[in-house]
Write a structure and sequence with these properties.
Serine Threonine Protein Phosphatase 5, Tetratricopeptide repeat; disordered N terminus; disordered C terminus; mainly alpha; about 180 residues
């Protein structure tokens, strides 16, 4: 019985000593990120983006997102794409945004698939293509992504357009009724 009472204070002392040597969570995360862990790199980037536990710095966020994205971290790829799309922490580049949206989309990220569809629908950073837009919207919708589900029915109603140099039998000139 006496041994238990002696072990308890000893255990408390050891616990207190290890607590004194603990590294704050953001420093531990930084160590993991610096060692190349893509999840830690993404999380550190997110801390910098939102200024949580570290001073807010979009440039520092982009640095860590890029490191993680280059290693295939889908969340970092999406975050980097958004940064390029919005020009936050980096120079705005729709072309670079599309590159990173595509990488995330190909890994199955439905928000990236949707944004890639938007890019193709509007010809933003890529040549406009209704077919590619439909393809990426459909992939996002298949995963239950609500905005893609909402837009698809409207895309199906869009007619295919003819180029201006293609004759159309149903577009005859109006008869002239005067000088105008």
């Amino acid at each position: 019985m006496m041994k238990r009472f002696l072990l308890f204070p000893l255990a408390l002392m050891l616990l207190a000593l290890t607590a004194c040597n603990e590294v704050p969570p953001e420093q531990d995360l930084r160590l993991q990120a610096e060692r190349g862990d893509p999840t830690a790199q993404y999380l550190l980037g997110s801390l910098y983006e939102h200024g949580q536990g570290v001073p807010q710095s979009l440039q520092e966020a982009i640095k860590w997102y890029r490191k993680a994205a280059e290693q295939g971290n889908v969340d970092a790829q999406f975050s980097l794409a958004l940064a390029y799309m919005l020009g936050q922490g980096t120079t705005q580049s729709y072309e670079d945004a599309v590159v990173w949206f595509r990488k995330a989309a190909e890994q199955g990220n439905p928000a990236a698939q949707f944004n890639l569809g938007v890019a193709y629908a509007g010809g933003t950073g890529v040549p406009q293509s209704s077919e590619e837009a439909r393809k990426w919207f459909q992939k996002a919708a298949d995963q239950g992504f609500a905005p893609a589900k909402e837009i698809l029915p409207h895309l199906r109603q869009v007619p295919t357009y003819r180029t201006l140099d293609t004759p159309s039998p149903d577009l005859s000139p109006l008869p002239s009724k005067g000088p105008f």
